[in-house]
Design goal:
- The complex is a heterotrimer of chains A (583), B (204) and C (107).
- Chain A has 583 residues and is mostly helical.
- Chain A has a single domain, classed as Cytochrome C Oxidase, Chain A.
- Helix content of chain A is 64%, strand content 1%.
- Chain A has a two-stranded antiparallel ribbon.
- Chain A is globular.
- The two termini of chain A are 25 Å apart.
- With 204 residues, chain B is mainly alpha-helical.
- Chain B has a single domain, classed as Cytochrome c oxidase, subunit III, four-helix bundle (Four Helix Bundle (Hemerythrin (Met), subunit A)), CATH 1.20.120.80.
- The N and C termini of chain B lie far apart (58 Å).
- In chain B, 50% of the residues are buried.
- Chain C is flat.
- The C terminus of chain C is likely disordered.
- The longest helix of chain C is centred in the first third of the chain and has 30 residues.
- With 107 residues, chain C is mainly alpha-helical.
- Classes of the chains: A mainly alpha (583), B mainly alpha (204), C mainly alpha (107).
- At the A-C interface, α8 and α9 of A face α3 and α4 of C.
Chain lengths: 583, 204, 107
């Protein structure tokens, strides 16, 4: 089985643009996602200027953007180079939306999942290659719609990434674009999740039983079920909100709502809380979609760089399944402040406490794996190692939020922002960086520079903590989230020093990414060439050429053992690849 | 695994017991259950929360159980013709299968036509629009989304009656499987209506 | 499922049988809705009949009766569970609260 697909030689478009090869699609997803991550990061860097120096003109961009987008745009959104409150709100809403739905999930599921999973199970491609291609292009279209919404009259969506009714229903046109974009993105996700589940179940190579799957594949498997079953209610809710906005229905609209002195013309009888239920029913499992593939990535890297078998593989598999299942039972912990009764709040608080257990189990198994390992501190491993305490901080700070009593003080404060960013930023994004450094040789046949990589890690690690740690202090002091100018409040003003610190941390973090960007692009052409298995790893992707041809494997692999057979006693090498037969 | 052809498109997988298309279709249907589930959940929450007297009674709603009932029977018959199409293919009778598929399409179009001409159109012109009340918002949205699913099914069936039929000559088993998957989707659409009809037309 | 003629005609008989059952149930549903048994009872009866019809369609037309595939059954079970959660839990978040606080917030 080599590089022919019915022996055709496709033109440029079929090979690189409309390809059905999972590797091409994986790279498309990853590159598109990285671009969106960069864009979302830029939105945040501008917001942080307004937060640190409220009312001051943004350097350079304060002049440049009005020049680029016209005088009218400039007068409405950036008069005197100062970001307007409305623009700030739209940047906030779009930062969240873009990072989650256009950046992180497409990168770790669409990018890493698509590229690595079929290789790790020994498959020639996904079960439904054309569907795979369709998923990418629907995602791309959704992304275009989201970006285009910045140019809608009134600007992009500005009701938070959570789009709570009735604010979102009465918002400007950009919100409609947001809803259309979301419908497209959700559809893309659904098609992808079907593909992942069928591929993992049906295309495993001979000998690859479910309990010989690399943990990365298990993580993607559970994630796909989360996407499959949790996203549709949000799609339904999106349709309902579209109806409210476009057809004047009252799904989420109470009667007699007054906005800016104007009584809104709705029949009423709707429920804003209905939106919250449908939204969070997805959005809670969504955060596990954000973290599970990350756990998958760093597990591969940690096992490989400790030269030891993973400790507690089966425990980790059962934990991740339990985690996925339980994630459907906790959503209303985002709604403790909506006046639910104490009994139902207690129910959701209980399930929320329970769900922390499998997360701790996963962390513990990984920590025990490190114990007495021969640790190699390459860049991928540095990012993977630092994931562990960072995720721990993120997870632990979730506990006071998951308990209704303490949530009263902390809900909608910067504490929440600190909590979830710790999990997603030095958590998932660090795992994604780890994955890039780890699998770059497989995708390109070249290594990235370790020197630049270590600089990237070092400065990112310090800067990211400078950005997010102060947010816990601010939240505890009562600083609300989504504020345009927190100095208007005395307690906000008192914490302004930390705000400035966070902002400088964010800009330093941005600067630190230059090491990565330079490294990534230059290594494509100038990186040291590698063979199949530069990391001496055991999983199947490392037995394919770097990069793998169409069809992936020179001959169909057979699997003979578990995925992490490192330092097997009596062997001359310290790793025993899955596909190498005995003797 | 043979070169260039993915396995389990036709033969069943030893562990899961189904071919890939069928597994994929069932997974997709599970997501569709959650989609309509979101809508039913909205209906339930809004209905339960509606203060006394604000939810239209059956007379006020003006939804004809006769038309709804007839449409229910139409869809049920179309489900039978759909499964008969698949059964005919299993008995290697392509001509018969094609006729059953065509009848299924016609019944589907009958459903849509009756819905549009005898329900949506007159209601709209009487001033009963989605914006009129929460009940009508639910009615139009749920039956509307359902109708879009019917149209989607019609498109797929027309494809398999027309250009897609050439697969029967090259790989009859693969074609039969695709019709089976289409049938699964179609029965699901029927299933949704089986719940929509009593909830929207017969309650209150 | 084999393609033999005898088998198939048995199946065809079964499909027609289900068709009749579904017809009867539909008529029953309409009739039951005209008898006033109290709102809760009417609702329960209607949904029970609908569930019965749905199971006929699922078991016979969708071949679930002969479907041994565990993964399909697991997926459907999860689906049923999460669907029920989505249907019932949001309602429970408003029970136990004084009616005035619930209704007034929704107009």
């Amino acid at each position: 089985m080599s590089d022919h697909d019915q022996g055709h030689h496709h033109g440029f478009l079929r090979t690189y643009v409309f390809s059905t090869d999972h590797k091409v699609i994986g790279v498309q997803y990853a590159v598109t996602a990285l671009v969106f991550l960069f864009f979302g990061f830029c939105l945040m860097m501008m917001m942080r200027w307004q937060l640190a120096y409220p009312g001051h003109a943004i350097p350079v961009l304060g002049d440049l953007l009005p020049k680029l987008f016209g005088k009218d745009w400039g007068e409405t959104n950036m008069a005197g180079g100062v970001m307007s409150p409305d623009l700030y709100n739209s940047f906030g809403a779009m930062h969240g939306t873009i990072m989650i739905f256009l950046g992180v999930v497409p990168l770790i599921v669409g990018g890493f999942g698509n590229y690595v999973m079929p290789l790790q199970i020994g498959a020639p491609d996904m079960s439904f290659p054309k569907l795979n291609m369709a998923s990418y292009w629907v995602y791309f279209t959704g992304g275009v719609v989201m970006l285009a919404s910045f140019f809608a009259p009134g600007g992009a969506a500005s009701s938070g990434w959570t789009s709570y009714a009735p604010l979102s229903v009465t918002a400007t046109q950009g919100q409609t674009w947001w809803l259309v974009g979301m419908v497209l993105l959700i559809t893309s996700s659904l098609l992808g999740s079907v593909n992942f589940i069928v591929t993992i179940l049906h295309l495993r190579a001979k000998g690859m039983t479910m309990f010989r799957l690399p943990f990365f594949v298990w993580a993607q498997f559970v994630t796909s079920f989360l996407l499959l079953l949790a996203f549709p209610p949000l799609e339904a809710a999106g349709v309902l909100q579209l109806m409210d906005r476009v057809a004047g229905t009252s799904f989420f609209m109470p009667q007699g709502l007054v906005v800016s002195g104007v009584v809104q013309d709705y029949a009423g009888g709707g429920s804003p809380l209905l939106w919250q239920h449908l939204f969070w029913f997805l959005a809670h499992p969504e955060v596990y979609v954000l973290i599970l593939p990350a756990f998958g990535i760093i597990t591969e890297i940690i096992a490989n760089n400790t030269r030891k078998p993973l400790w507690g593989y089966r425990t980790m598999v059962y934990s991740v399944i339990f985690l996925g299942f339980t994630s459907f039972l906790v959503w209303a912990h985002h709604m403790f402040m909506t006046g639910m009764g104490t009994s139902i709040s207690a129910f959701f608080a209980t399930t929320t406490m329970i769900i922390s257990i499998p997360s701790v189990i996963l962390l513990t198994c990984l920590l025990i794996t490190l114990y007495r390992g021969s640790i190699r501190f390459n860049t991928a491993m540095l990012f993977a190692l630092s994931f562990l305490p960072m995720f721990a901080i993120g997870g632990l700070t979730g506990l006071p939020l998951g308990l209704p009593a303490s949530d009263i003080a902390l809900h909608d404060t910067y504490y929440v922002i600190g909590h979830f960013h710790y999990v997603v930023a030095p958590g998932t994004i660090f795992a994604a960086f780890a994955g890039v450094y780890f699998w770059f040789p497989k995708v390109t046949g070249r290594r990235m520079s370790e020197k630049l990589g270590k600089l990237h890690w070092f400065f990112s690690f310090i800067a990211i903590n400078v950005v997010f740690m102060p947010m816990f202090f601010q939240g505890l002091a009562g600083v609300s989230r989504r504020l345009y100018d927190q100095t208007l409040y005395s307690w906000g003003d008192a914490m302004q020093g930390w705000t400035i610190t966070s902002s400088w941390g964010a800009w330093a973090l941005g600067a630190a990414q230059i090491f990565f960007i330079v490294n990534f692009f230059s290594s494509i052409k100038l990186g040291k060439r590698v063979t199949e298995n530069p990391w001496d790893a055991t999983t199947l992707e490392w037995s394919a050429p770097s990069p793998p041809p169409h069809g992936n494997f020179a001959s169909v692999p057979t699997v003979h053992r578990e995925p992490y057979e490192y330092s097997v006693p009596g062997m001359s090498t310290d790793f025993f690849p899955q596909n190498v037969s005995e003797a | 695994m043979s070169a260039g052809v993915l396995p389990y498109t036709v033969e069943t997988h030893p562990v899961t017991g189904v071919y890939s298309g069928k597994l994929g279709t069932w997974l997709f249907l599970a997501s569709e259950v959650m989609l309509f589930g979101g809508l039913f959940s909205a209906y339930v929450l809004l209905r339960v929360g509606a203060p006394e007297g604000t939810w239209p009674t059956r007379e006020e709603a003006e939804l004809s159980w006769k038309i709804g009932g007839f449409n229910t029977l139409t869809l049920i018959i179309s489900s039978v013709t759909m499964v008969m199409a698949w059964a005919s293919l299993k008995m290697h009778n392509f001509a018969k299968a094609r006729i059953y598929l065509i009848i299924t399409v016609l019944l589907a179009l009958l459903f849509i036509t009756l819905k549009l001409s005898l329900e949506y159109y007159p209601h709209w012109h009487e001033g009963l629009k989605p914006s009129t009340s929460v009940f009508f918002a639910c009615y139009y949205t749920m039956t509307g989304l359902h109708a879009l699913h019917i149209l989607g099914g019609v498109v797929v069936m027309l494809y398999f009656i027309g250009p897609g039929a050439s697969l029967w000559k090259t790989d009859p088993e693969h074609y039969t499987n695709r019709i089976e998957c289409t049938g699964l989707y179609w029965h699901f659409v029927d299933l949704v209506w089986i719940f929509l009809f009593p909830v929207l037309y017969l309650m209150n | 499922m084999s393609g033999s003629h005898a088998d198939m005609s048995k199946h065809v008989k079964m499909y027609l049988g289900v068709l009749s059952a579904l017809f009867v149930c539909t008529i029953l549903t309409v009739y039951a809705s005209t008898v006033n048994m109290g709102h809760a009872t009417n609702m329960t009866v209607a949904l029970l009949i609908a569930a019965f019809k749905a199971s006929l369609v699922a078991m016979i037309f969708m071949h679930l009766k002969w479907e041994g595939s565990k993964i399909i059954w697991i997926t459907l079970a999860l689906c049923a569970l999460f669907f029920s959660l989505l249907l019932f839990l949001p309602m429970l978040t408003t029970t136990g609260l004084p009616a005035s606080t619930v209704y007034s917030s929704w107009g």
